[in-house]
Each structure stands twice: as structure tokens, then as C-alpha cells.
Amino acid sequence: MLTGTTFTYSIVSLALIMALLTSLIALPFQMIGVVEATQGTESRSDDVSTEIIDVSLNSTNSSTANATTTQTSSNANQSGIPETAIGPTIPPEKGYFVEEIRDGLYWVTDGSYNTMFLVTDEGVVAVDAPPSIGANYLKAISEVTDQPITHVIYSHSHLDHIGAAASIFPENATYIAHEAIAQELQRAHNGLQMTNTTGEEADDSHFAPAQIPAYNVSQLPPIPTETFTQNHTLQVGNQTLMLNYHGNNHEEGNIFIYAPAQRTLMLVDIIFPGWIPFVYLALAEDVYGYIQAHDTVLNNYDFDTFVGGHLTRLGTREDVQIQREFITDLINASNNANQNVTFGEILQKVGGPTNNVWTIFNAYLNTVDEQCANEMLPKWQHRLGGVEEFLLTQCTTMTESLRIEPSTKTLEQQ
Ligand SMILES: [Zn+2]
After folding, report:
1. From the CA of 288, how far away is ligand 1's center (Å)?
2. With bands split at pLDDT 50, 70 and 90, how would you rate the model's confidence at 353?
3. Rounded distance from Cα 281 to ligand 1 centre (Å)
4. How many angstroms does the Cα of residue 282 sit away from the middle of ligand 1?
5. Confidence bin at 292 (pLDDT 50/70/90)
6. Residues within 5 Å of ion ligand 1, judged at the Cβ atom
7. What's the CA-to-centroid distance between 161 and ligand 1, angstroms?
């Protein structure tokens, strides 16, 4: 039982911790939030940009601003994420949650990462193996079936999604991935073997288990034993999965995994149901391909359930439509900011020509990004989780891509 004093103390402590974390992660963005909140308008005033530029160029001003913005951000965080960003409760004694989607297809989550597995009458097909879930993946599978794991599919090569495959699955399972993923894993195996022969083996003893564990060959996910370049239909016993490649998006070889009987589509690190994407459009290697992937999901697949690989809950077709709308708004806001901010005005604000060209570019890029974020904020702040934290990074990626990439630039007109 908490006494009144303890309870108040806990809330205050939590608020302070949240404020500190938020201020460390997203100081520049908080500047926008404070000015917007104070003004109570959705205007994109030049004053906002001026203030942000002043702070970024003169760190001595930031301590005062920080104290003010931290308070506001703390209050905002206490109001909580949108209801639509909340998923099922993870039983703390287990550390994971497993649930049948339908007809032998299950999803498992730890509240930060998620993946799915398919139970057939001839074995289990496991997709990915996030290290944060780790060996709990096997516990989740054994909760619902006695069948052995016979097949493993990699959605893509990133170790935060497949790193645990190094140690938890049977060696004689069939490992399936796109050819590009096999090549990337082969490159990693080769690199580590070279490192080992030169006697420079890394000491990984100080890394926490949740971090990427790949420091020697035995800790790397096995190289796929079956690869494909376009489409692959996996039939195991009475169940079917369709693996499709539609070109680069998050990374080369990131595939769509479709369970037709279960009307479920898995695509990792593209769409984040209920939440803003991870930083910089989830680190998309190919921004145009990343955007197109949304349309491919909506146009090419008949599904009710979406598995995105991250965060709190499963998604729906509506979640994909909402994120596509977010991306459309981001393109427009980024294009507007690119058009509105001129180098001339930035030169004036910086105080004239300087030999340090990056100083001018830094001020220019910051101003463009802040204008983009200011335009996006009113509509999206309370519609998706994590907007205050990551919106500015989405603007950075989109404004830059619109500035220099021919394919993305064609989207300005839409
Ligand atoms: Zn990834």
C-alpha cells in the first residue's frame, strides 16, 4: 500500500525522471512544443525558428530554456500516450504476451518488439527472433503447441529482429530469407572470421543481454539455407505463408510475409500501429521505397491483421491508412518548409558569411526541420504515440530526401 506522501513522492520522482529523459532525447523539439503551447495557435511563426536557431547556436542560452521546456514536456508526458497506442498488458512474471491471431497463427510481444509464428501439423514456422524476447519466444511457442520448430523466416537482416536466432532455434531447421539478407549475413560471418584469425576477438562481457549479441560467428544468426529474390510460397503441412519482395524499402531484402488463410500481413520496420515511426522514417535505406511500401500493403494484400515488428499491439488496415496519411502530411510539410526557408534569411540570422560552411547549413537545416515539425504537430501530437519524441527526425529525413533524391522529389506534386 502506498501512503499519500509516498504516492505523491513517487509521482514527482516519475515526473522528474520522465522530464530528464525527454529533455535529453528531444530538446530541440521541445522548443517548438513550448512556443506552440504558450501561443495556443497552430501558426508556424518565424519567432519559433528564430528561438530555435538562437538556442542551437548559443548553448549558453539553453539552460534557461531547458528548465521551462522540461516542465511543459513533463506535463505533456503525464497526460499519457493516445489510447490507440496502448496494447495488451504484458504479464510481468512472464515478460511476454502470446495470443492466437487465428487458425494456428500466433503473435508474441514484450511490449517493444513483436513477431509471429505459425503452427502447422508438421512443425512450427517461426518468423524472426528479436533478442529482447529471446528465449521467451520458445516458451511462448511451447505454451500453445508440442510441435518442433522446423522452419525459420527472417523478415530482414537487422539483429534487433533476428539476433536471437543465433542460439534459440534447432540447427537443422530450414532458414529462409531473401537473397540479399543471406549475402549480408554471409558478409558478417566472413568479417568476424577475419577478425578472429587476427586475434582481435571482442570482449562482449559488458553488453546487456537485450543488446545486439553478435560478436563472434556463433552469435550471428545462421546463414539462410533457402533464399529467393522475388516470391516464395512456403507450404508446411496444412499451412501456407507467402513471402514477397517488392524492392528496397527499410533495407534491401525486407520482405512482406503474408498468411492468406489468416488474413494477416507482417512487414517489419515500416508501419508502427498507433505510433509514429522509429527515428528518421525508421532508418529507411530507401525513402521512396519506404513510402511506396505503404501503398503496396494497401493495394496488394487482403488482410485484417498487421504485424509490424514493434511496439504495443497488432495493427489493422486502418492503422496502415493512418500512417500513409501521416506520410502524406509529412511530404507536404517538408515540401512547404523547403520552399519557405531561404539561405539568405539564414545567413542574416547567423550573422553574415563565415568560413565554417557547416554552421550555416546547420542553421538552415534546423530551421527547415522545425518549420516542418511545427506544421505537423497540431494534427498529429495526440493522434499517435511518441510524436513529441520523434517528429523532428521524420522531418529531417523527408526534407533531405525531397531536396536531393529524384524519386522522392516526384512525390511533391501529389
Ligand atoms: Zn530493421
Report:
1. 16
2. low
3. 11
4. 8
5. very high
6. 158, 269
7. 7
Spatial CA neighbour of 224 closest among 162, 181, 273, 275: 181
Instruction: Give the Å distance between the CA of 254 and the centre of ligand 1.
Output: 8
- Gap from CA of 50 to ligand 1 centroid (Å): 36
Closest by CA position to 288, among listed 406, 408, 395, 401 = 408
**DSSP string across 58-95:** -GGGHHHHHHHHHHHHHHHHHT-S-GGG--PPPPTTTS
**87-196+204-312 has which fold?**
Metallo-beta-lactamase; Chain A (3.60.15)
Task: List the one residue out of 130, 133, 168 whose CA is nearest residue 149.
Answer: 168
Q: The C-alpha cell of 163 is what?
A: 539476433
Q: How far apart are CA 285 and CA 281, in angstroms?
A: 9
Q: What is the pTM of this model?
A: 0.78
Query: What is the phi/psi pair of residue 251, to 5°?
Result: -155, 165
Which of 5-19, 275-289, 314-328, 337-351 bottoms out in mean pLDDT, i.e. has the lowest?
5-19
Give the DSSP H or E segment for 174: strand 174-178
Q: How many angstroms separate the alpha carbon of residue 268 from the centre of ligand 1?
A: 7
Q: Across 179-307, where does the E strand assignment appear?
A: 226-228, 231-236, 239-244, 256-259, 264-266, 305-307
Query: How do the domains of the chain map onto residue ranges?
Result: 11-78+330-409, 87-196+204-312
CA dist 369 and 260 (Å) reads 41
User: How many angstroms does the Cα of residue 73 sit away from the middle of ligand 1?
Assistant: 29
- Whether residue 44 is predicted with pLDDT greater than 90 in this model: the reply is no
